[in-house]
């Protein structure tokens, strides 16, 4: 008997990803920070949860990653003891063309606007 099945994480299949869940996941600033970090990686690259600096407790960080995974925004897989994260860009672009790019562009514009001040 192996224990690897306990380390598998559930992800929605592409056909079950819903727009309202994706938008809900992207609406939170911490989760948007995670997506922004993963989007900046080269295609197919992964990052551990600890590589993505979130100014929250570990349990809150775990919650944010779970929301993103359950919405179909990210893939999570265990590699040894590390939980690796990768953006589901291909799935999101297929289901909702330009959504991810538009959200990331709008986020960048807002961060620029807010950092400039009046």
Automatic annotation (TrEMBL):
<dbReference type="InterPro" id="IPR051081">
    <property type="entry name" value="HTH_MetalResp_TranReg"/>
</dbReference>
<keyword id="KW-0804">Transcription</keyword>
<dbReference type="InterPro" id="IPR036388">
    <property type="entry name" value="WH-like_DNA-bd_sf"/>
</dbReference>
<dbReference type="InterPro" id="IPR011991">
    <property type="entry name" value="ArsR-like_HTH"/>
</dbReference>
<keyword id="KW-0805">Transcription regulation</keyword>
<dbReference type="InterPro" id="IPR001845">
    <property type="entry name" value="HTH_ArsR_DNA-bd_dom"/>
</dbReference>
<dbReference type="GO" id="GO:0003677">
    <property type="term" value="F:DNA binding"/>
</dbReference>
<feature type="domain" description="HTH arsR-type">
    <location>
        <begin position="11"/>
        <end position="107"/>
    </location>
</feature>
<dbReference type="Pfam" id="PF12840">
    <property type="entry name" value="HTH_20"/>
</dbReference>
<dbReference type="GO" id="GO:0003700">
    <property type="term" value="F:DNA-binding transcription factor activity"/>
</dbReference>
<dbReference type="InterPro" id="IPR036390">
    <property type="entry name" value="WH_DNA-bd_sf"/>
</dbReference>
<protein>
    <submittedName>
        <fullName>Transcriptional regulator</fullName>
    </submittedName>
</protein>
<keyword id="KW-0238">DNA-binding</keyword>
């Amino acid at each position: 008997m192996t224990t690897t099945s306990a380390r598998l994480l559930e992800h929605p299949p592409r056909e079950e990803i819903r727009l309202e869940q994706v938008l809900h996941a992207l609406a939170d600033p911490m989760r948007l920070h995670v997506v922004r970090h993963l989007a900046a990686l080269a295609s197919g690259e992964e990052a551990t949860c600890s590589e993505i600096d979130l100014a929250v407790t570990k349990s809150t960080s775990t919650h944010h990653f779970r929301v993103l995974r359950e919405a179909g925004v990210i893939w999570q897989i265990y590699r040894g003891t590390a939980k690796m994260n990768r953006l589901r860009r291909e799935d999101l672009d297929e289901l909702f063309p330009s959504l991810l790019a538009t959200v990331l562009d709008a986020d960048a514009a807002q961060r620029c606007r807010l950092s400039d001040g009046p």
